[in-house]
Design a protein that fits this description.
Layout (H helix, E strand, L loop, with lengths): L1 H29 L5 H6 L5 H11 L5 H13 L13 H36 L4 H15 L2 H15 L21 H7 L3 H38 L2 H8 L4 H13 L1 H15 L3 H6 L5 H10 L3 H29 L6
Helix pairs in contact: 1-15, 5-6, 5-9, 5-12, 6-9, 7-9, 8-9, 9-11, 9-12, 12-15, 14-15
Amino acid sequence: MKLLVYLGQRLMTMIPTLVGLVILTFFLARVVPADPVALIAGEGATREQLEALRQRYGFDQPLYVQLGVYLRQLAVGDLGMSIYTGRPVLDDILERFPATIELTLVSIGAATLLGIPLGVLAALRRNSWLDHFLRTFTTAGLAITGFWLGIMLQLLFCMDLDLLPLGGRIGVPEPDHLTGLFILDSILTLNGTALLSSLAHIALPALTLVYPAFATITRFTRSGVLDVMQREFILYERAMGLPRLLILFKYLLRNAVTSTVAQIGLLFGSLLAGAVVIERVYDWPGLGLYAVESIINFDYQATLGITLWAGIAFSLANLLVDIVQAVIDPRVVK
């Protein structure tokens, strides 16, 4: 019951946050010194044509009227029409969402599977050669910029070694769309050719995202384990002569990974909202690439839709973190 009340409280805090995000983004998008109507109409458009387009898209109305219209549209799930693509923004987002979620799941899954065990190992072997190596390696992962790493990986694995494709999501006919996730769909339909092509295309974008995420998870796990190892209850369990593995998995890890779980949630939300630079570098047809195209073309409706979606992604990621932390440590809901 306490957990449900706690989750209800967390859900209630999401609503004003998202409303504030929508309003702030709406006004920021309108102060950009560019006229989207002029971009749509082209250089040869007459004054009458420009005015007609402004009336069509509602740009002739005061800002508060435009905001009211936009909020009413949001209330019924309408994100408006994209000026650039000419399609509903919601359709564009739903079409590109599977590419982003697939890249996110692969990246965060690999980073977690590598980061937590190595972080624990580094803490257990503090000041060993492995600990020093991981600290150096993870520091580099946090310092290196994503676009530079992506370009370097392309030059090495695509241009020099010719082992992996330069960009895109798949190089063969797409598998039957069951979930929209090419790797999963290829497995479910037993399409080996599509599976290999999907894995080859996702390898470099995922690796570029995995490195900084792995560095963060490893460092937080190491720090958490070192902190818990000094707690009195761990020293007591050791003095009682309990097996080391039992202490590690039952008492130490459960208390040590709380901060790590929070970081994983933040990383997941960040990647899910769209790894803009990485998707641009690898021409990955996800929401990040869509966001870049929308901003470049001053597509207000698409920019607002992407921003709202990013806010929802972060909020849901934080909510998921709260749930996991409450399960790991029931004291959170007290």
